[in-house]
Amino acid sequence: MSQEEIFINNLFVRIQNLMPSFNKAQFKVAEYFLNNREELKHLKIKQLALNCDVSEATITRFIRKIGFSSFQNFKYAIIKVDSSSRESVGGVDDLDKLNTEDPVDSLISRVKNEYISDIQMTLKNLDTREILNAIEAIKSAKGINFFCVGTSCIAAKNSYLRFYRAGIKTCVYNDPAEMGIAASLSKKGDVAIGLSYSGKTEVVNIAMRISKKNGSTTIAVTGPGRSPLIKMADIKISSQYEELDDYLLTSYARLSQIIIMDILYTGVAEQNYEKSVQSIQKISSNAIEILHH
To answer: Which of 14, 120, 135, 251 is deepest in the core (most CB within 10 A)?
Structure first.
C-alpha cells in the first residue's frame, strides 16, 4: 500500500473518530463521506453540499476540521491515491494543471493553496472599524510596545522594523522581565500591541493590563473567542472564525498576524506619507554609508 493510500485510509478513520465532536450539520457531512467514499473525487463542492443538504460553508469548515486547508486540496489528495481515475474526472478546480508525478510540484501547490486560503480567511473576518481605530491610535502614538512570545514574535519583529523605518519609535518585548519593565514605564500616548493567537498567554496579558492601567492604548491582535486578551483590549482585532487542526494552526496564526500588522502599517504610512518617506529615505542613505564601511 502506498503512502497516499495509507494517508487516505487514516483520514476516514479520523473522520469516524471525530464523529462525537461534530455538530448536526458536520455529522451529516461525515456520514456522507464515510458512505460515499468513491464518489467524493467526482463531486464539486456545490454538488456535495446539495447531496448533504448543508451549505457550502459547512463543507469548507468540515474539510478544515479534518485537516485540509481547502476543498481543492482535499480533492487533490483523494484523486492522487487513484491516479488512473484522473482522466475521467471533470471540473476538478484546475487539478488537471498539476503534475502529480512530481512530488515537488505537489508540495509547492499544496503550500501555495494553504497560504491563499489563510489570506482569504483572515481578510474575510476582519472588523474594518477596529482596523481604522488601530491605525488612528498608532499614527498619533508617542511610542509602540509589542508584547509577544513564540511565533508571534515573527510578526512583531517584522512590524517593528517597518514602523521604525517610517519614523515611529517601536520596541518588541518577548522576555517576561523586559515586558514588566516596559509596561510599568508605559504612559498615556503610548500604544501597547499584544500578539497572541490564543489570547491566553499570561505574560502578554499581564503586560497589556499594566500598560492599560498606565494610560496606554491597548490593541489585541488575536484569534477568535472571548479570550482574556480580547476582553481587556481597547481595540480588538481578531481573525479566523473556523476551527483548524493543530498542525495548520501555527502556520495560520503566524501568517494572519503578519497580514494584520502589514495592513496597519500601510494605513499608518499612507496617512503619514511625507514623514514616512522622509524617514525611510534618510535611513536608506545612512544604512548604505554604514555598510560601505
So the answer is: 135
